[in-house]
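Supplementary Methods, section 5.1.

A reviewer requested that the exact input to the structure prediction be made available. We therefore reproduce it here, unchanged from the version used in the analyses.
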Amino acid sequence: MSKNKANAKMSRGPGGHGKGPRGAKNAGKTLKRLLSYIIKGYGLRLLVVLLCLGASAFSSVFSARFLQSLIVEIGVMVEAAKAGLTPDGLPLALEIVKIVIIYLIGIVSGFLSSFLMVKVGQGVLKKIREDMFSNMQSLPIKYFDRNEFGDIMSHYTNDTDAIEQLIAQSIPNLVSGVVTIIASFVMMLVTSWQLTIVVILTLFIMLYVVKVVGGGSAKYFIAQQKSVGKLNGYIEEMANGQKVVKVFNHEQKAKADFDQLNDELCGNMTKAHTYANIFMPIMANLNYLQYVLVAVAGGLLALNGLLFVPGGENTPYAMLGVVSAFLLLSRNFSRPISMVSQQINSIVMALAGAERVFELMDEKPETDDGYVTLVNAKFDKNGELVPCDERTGIWAWRHPHGDGTLTYTQLKGEITLTEVDFEYEEGKPVLHDITVYANPGQRVALVGATGAGKTTITNLINRFYDIADGKVRYDGININKIKKSDLRRSLGIVLQDTNLFTGTIAENIRYGRLDATDEEVEAAAKLANAHDFITRLPDGYQTMLTSDGANLSQGQRQLLSIARAAIADAPVMIMDEATSSIDTRTELLVQRGTNQLMQGRTVFIIAHRLSTVKNCDVIMVMEKGRIIERGTHESLIEKGGKYYQLYTGAFELE
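The structure derived from this sequence is encoded token-by-token as follows.
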């Protein structure tokens, strides 16, 4: 990693990982895009869910209407009994059956909507994660330089959890609540317009509470999510760096920083949940107050004969039925208001999380305008280079031209950089006027202090970054014309920082070429001198690695990294501090293997140990982004310049 990139990462400081969701900048656009995921993949199921939610809501509303009819029928039977007549129980039985059917419809609809919404929610999240990960794989390296891993991980954890909450709970509750509110309001108007006015007056009080308490709760829930992201990022950072923490006795400082972040999270969570916890009791008591006001108003109107009974006579039982039904309707009306208000926090956080997820999806993928591809080739009986399907050990560049012709150029491994300038950040140049000639089969060494630009040169060769000025050519072809995947397939890279993946040792070696056989895996391990230690492990090549190969020594991990590069069998090799983490004895074993691996290949070697570059064909000494010396080991020693000082110890690399 260059000094510029390292500084860029360090500048974010502890806890810079998961930023967590803040309020969505464009909630409408984000919601529309999120709904498109639901509708495109699960439109029919969503329609069934909406119908079920509507049926469930209407069942609760109409049950109140049938309650009114039930009371009227009971009154009719009572009056008939008083008059000495035999009461007819059939109408009452029919009303009871109707109520039972209505409630059964509500129960079945509620169950079906919940069951289907789980399927919809998990399916949508699966698709979102797939799209997010797919686009992440296409992003340029500079994206990962500028964004902390913890922050990227929060897209897959905190943000998707918030989206799941929205799809599985908030949207169904919101739809059900809105339908119930509308249906209840209409039914209340039909039942009694006088009592509806009483409900509307108390509604204004509820809405004011929702605005004050709900708004404050939403604000602090967003802050809570941000604090969770910071704390998770810091914990991840400390877990990964525990050895460094303990070596430098940094435990107390780490605890202090953690306490600061934890206090921030605690404060935000306390405020968020304080608002949330007082919200429901306030709304519940307002509902009770509304219930009492409706009951009192209904009783007064009924006693004075002012309560209008739609479609019937103002008999005591009819008015009692109206008041009873209206009380139930008012509860059905006010309860969803509380439920909908509760969803505000979830919706705000979910839309903020969804916006962050979509930002990752919308990150511009790595551009690739290359059209020159790499193919297996062989010489036919006429000595012409032609493509073939089988692996022959001969590679060729398939180069289509503007006039429609097609040529095949044998991959020899000649790489040149001509007058190259480069900067990671605008206005901060890293390389100045770099010119490098690597002939086929040559070993080119880059030496110099940290931050001199050595790794940056190799990053330009494999097009992790594109140059600002100058030319980079591969076998005479401008690398901008070569398809990136084919360019990188021709390069075998061993990095200073080994990255091993969860899986067996064989699978990690085979990462270099997925179609490699077990015999080829073993041959690559032998070439890298890793076979000996692998066979001493209890499960040999089937030994399972976890946590980046934590059960292996650093040297063993590096040997596996070299074996992985060996199995790729690439014509050009880049060895970026490949032996920096290996002891002197292991280094000798590795050099024997890599010397054989390098035969016939163009090799770029970045090294601090100058003993590893003595036999290179050309050594380039870099300083502050410039090549200040170049030549063989002997010529540079004879020159007595910076390389001589480095080699003799008069000047040490930083």
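The chain has three domains: 20-362, 373-410, 415-648. These observations are discussed further in the main text.
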